[in-house]
Design brief:
Number of helices: 18
Radius of gyration: 33 Å
Shape: elongated
Largest sheet: 7 strands, mixed
Mean pLDDT: 87
Distance between the termini: 16 Å
CATH architecture of the largest domain: 3-Layer(aba) Sandwich
Low-confidence stretches: 1-11, 86-94
CATH class of the largest domain: Alpha Beta
Length: 453
């Protein structure tokens, strides 16, 4: 993806991202069983990484130099730094350590999170004697990674660990190996798919004629387009001679000054998570909560509440006899009503979501037992049977009031069970679904924002 260094208020952006990540975690914790295991693990790993990065703040910009053997990463690292620090030459492929240079800030917590050893850190102190170009890099955390194509598996493991944690990836390629399939298929395509903020430099152009250098740059640009990096320009440079180094440093200064790249990297992680989750959602489907009162009334009637209400009405009009007998709800009836609710609540959603809602709601036996307990403890109204002269003047209004009072008490008792055991869990699952669905649309929203900018 292209990198846009647009000034942005870090606090507000961080707060919005932190809220989105928190909602995603809540959604995943409620509805993870609806997500394929591999996707679930990757999304949770993304959530962890986003939370950790946001907790460290977005004022510092982590730029990782990544590339293969002979690309000149360490030489470029030293050229940007302005002094010798990284281990260059033949010793480089034998170590999986990461070197870091930090301009003008204390980034100890950030470097601890990145796993940079203390002896591999260099603080670039900025004072009044430094020129403006150097001061413009304040807040930059520059990492020199091992070679991604090293024969040492520890080196590749280090690269694979750090790349998702970096805010901006600076891919360093050389004229001889710029078309290397290992770089394009394993890293650049993945960075494009995950929309990781990236820059690409073609190093060692001092070894080529100007005409050849531009020919290689154009071919590299073509390969990047195949990878999906259609908006990432190629920057021809020479770390050895310093050719175009000032242009690269200006790009890095822009990233640092905007203070948006770290937030953009987290946002890219969330967009990628949305892509992963899209397969577990139904496009264009909005989950709808069934009528909770309809469920309450159905269960109350099945438990005998309606029959008791009719008996109370008859008694209020002077009928002899006791109120309707015991209030009992069969497990089979409770389970049938629950499953009907689950079917309605997941209509149009992928089958896995039906299982999630079914697992989150109370089963028939649990519902039946809890409803009967609440009905037994309910404050049923006293219904006096009129006798004598009062019976002659008993009116339908008294019967209607007795019926209504009895229904209200019985349904209230059922509602005390249905809301926490059926309705509220379903609402939470629907909220989880909407949070995931919103994430799948984040990429389109981002594209629209960029187009309108």
């Amino acid at each position: 993806m292209s990198v846009q260094f647009v000034p942005l208020e870090p606090a507000s952006e961080t707060a919005a991202l932190r809220d989105r990540v928190a909602r995603l975690r809540s959604a995943m914790e409620w509805a993870s069983d609806a997500i394929p295991a591999g996707v679930r693990d990757e999304v949770f790993a993304t959530i962890d990484r986003c939370e950790e990065r946001l907790a460290l703040g977005v004022d510092n910009t982590v730029v990782a130099l990544a590339g293969g053997t002979g690309s000149g990463k360490s030489t470029l690292f030293n050229a940007i730094l302005g002094r010798e620090f990284a281990v260059s030459g033949v010793a480089r492929p034998t170590t999986s350590d990461v070197s870091a240079a930090v301009w003008g800030v204390d980034a100890s917590a950030l470097l601890d999170w990145l796993g940079v050893a203390p002896q591999r850190r260099l603080a670039r102190v900025i004072d009044e004697l430094d020129d403006e170009d150097e001061k413009s890099l304040a807040g930059l955390v520059l990492l020199d990674l091992p070679d991604h194509d090293s024969v040492n598996p520890d080196n590749r493991a280090t690269v694979d660990r750090i790349i998702p944690m970096a805010d901006l990836l600076l891919w360093v390629v050389d004229p001889q190996k710029y078309a290397d399939n290992a770089l394009h298929s394993a890293y650049l395509e993945a960075a494009s798919q995950q929309q990781r903020p990236s820059l690409v430099v073609l190093n060692h152009v001092d070894r080529l004629s100007t005409e050849d250098a531009w020919a290689v740059a154009r071919d590299l640009q073509r390969l990047l387009a195949v990878d999906g990096m259609t908006q990432v320009p190629v920057m021809p440079i020479s770390a050895k001679t310093g050719q175009s180094l000032d242009i690269l440093r200006a790009e890095l200064a822009g990233a640092v000054a905007g203070k948006t790249v770290a937030a953009e990297a987290v946002r890219a992680d969330l967009v990628y998570a949305g892509r992963l989750l899209s397969g577990a959602l139904a496009r264009g489907t909005e989950p709808t909560l069934p009528d909770a009162e309809e469920l309450v009334q159905a269960l109350a009637a099945a438990a005998g509440v309606d029959a008791r209400a009719e008996s109370a009405a008859a008694r209020a009009k002077g009928a002899a006899g006791e109120l309707a007998g015991s209030l009992r709800l069969s497990v089979a009836t409770a389970e049938r009503e629950r499953l009907d609710w689950v079917d309605a609540a997941t209509d149009g959603l992928p089958p896995t979501w039906r299982r999630v809602v079914a697992d989150a709601t109370g089963e028939g036996a649990e519902l039946a037992e809890a409803i009967q307990a609440e009905l037994a403890a309910a404050p049923w109204p006293d219904i006096e049977r009129p006798t004598g002269i009062k019976a002659l003047f008993a009116r339908a209004g008294a019967a209607a009031r007795a019926r209504r009072r009895t229904l209200d008490v019985g349904r209230a008792a059922v509602r005390l069970v249905v809301m926490p055991q059926v309705v509220e869990p379903t609402e939470t699952i629907h909220q989880a679904y909407r949070a995931m669905d919103e994430l799948t649309r984040l990429e389109a929203v981002q594209a629209a924002d960029e187009e309108n900018a």
